[in-house]
Amino acid sequence: MSGRTIVIVGGTSGIGLALAKDTVARGDSVVITGRGQERVDEIAATVGGAVTGVSLDISEPETIADQLAGVGPVHGLVLAAIERDANTVREYDIARARRLVTLKLIGYTEVIHTLLDRLEPSRDTGIVLFGGRAKDAPYPGSTTVATINGGVMGLMNALALELAPIRVNAIHPGIIGDSPFWAGKTAAIEGYAARTPGGELATMADVVDAVQFLLRNRGVSALNLDLDRGWRLT
C-alpha cells in the first residue's frame, strides 16, 4: 500500500465507482460515499482491497460534518456526486433547482470545509471537482445544470487560491458513451459521436485517467479540464 487515502464522494456508481476500483489497483486506500450505509458497504465489498464505505448525502449539508467524522487523514479528494435535472426557465421547478445547487455548490464546499483539518497541506494533495460541459454547451432543459457547472469553475478558482499549496482542479466531461446513463441510447450516442473528430466519444476509462492526472500531477492547479474528444470542433 502507498499509505495514501483518497476520498471519492459519489463513488458507488458510474465513473466514481470506476475511479475507486482504479485507485485501489494503484495501491491507495479509498473511502467511497453514497446514500445508505448498507448499500455503500455492499458496493465497497465488491471493490475489494482497502475500501471503506461512508453514508453521505451532500444535498443535506448540515449533516456532512457528522457523517464524515470517522474519516482520518486524506491525501486526495474527488467530488464526483452529481444529479441530472431537466429544468427550463419556462417551467421552472424551484425545489429541483434548489436541491441541485445545494448538492453541487454548497455540498461540495462543505465536504472540503469538513475535511480541511485532515487534508495533507501539500502540493502532493489534490482535490478534483466534477463539473460538466453544459457550462458552455447548454442544451434544452439545462438551465440549472449549466448554471451550477459554471459555478464549479468559480468555486475551483477560489479554492485553488485559498487552499494552496493543496491543488484544486475541475473536470468537465461531455458525453461519455459507455457510462450507465447512456446505456441503450444508441441513436443519441451515434449522433454525438459523429460530431467528434474521429467519430468516437470519450469513455469512462478516459475520465478516470484524467482524474488521476489531476489528483497526482504536482504542477497542475486551477485547471478546468474539458473531456469530450473535441466534440464542438466539427
Your description of this structure?
There is one protein chain. Helix 2 links the parallel strand 2 (29-34) and strand 3 (51-55). The radius of gyration is 17 Å and the shape is globular. It has a seven-stranded parallel sheet, sandwiched between helices. It has seven helices and seven strands; from the N terminus they run βαβαβαβαβαβααβ. By secondary structure, it is α/β, with parallel strands linked by helices. Helix 1 (14-25) crosses helix 7. The longest helix is centred in the middle third of the chain and has 22 residues, at 94-115. 39% of the residues are buried. Helices cover 39% and strands 15% of the residues. The chain has helices at residues 14-25, 37-47, 64-67, 94-115, 143-163, 186-193, 204-216; strands at 5-9, 29-34, 51-55, 76-79, 126-130, 167-173, 224-227.
Main sheet: strand order: 3-2-1-4-5-6-7
Instruction: Write down the Rg.
Output: 17 Å
Would you report the number of β strands? 7
Please tell me the overall pLDDT. Answer: 94
Overview in brief:
This protein is of the alpha/beta class. It contains 7 helices and 7 strands, in the order βαβαβαβαβαβααβ.
Topology:
Blueprint: E1 5-9, H1 14-25, E2 29-34, H2 37-47, E3 51-55, H3 64-67, E4 76-79, H4 94-115, E5 126-130, H5 143-163, E6 167-173, H6 186-193, H7 204-216, E7 224-227
Parallel strand pairs: 1-2, 1-4, 2-3, 4-5, 5-6, 6-7
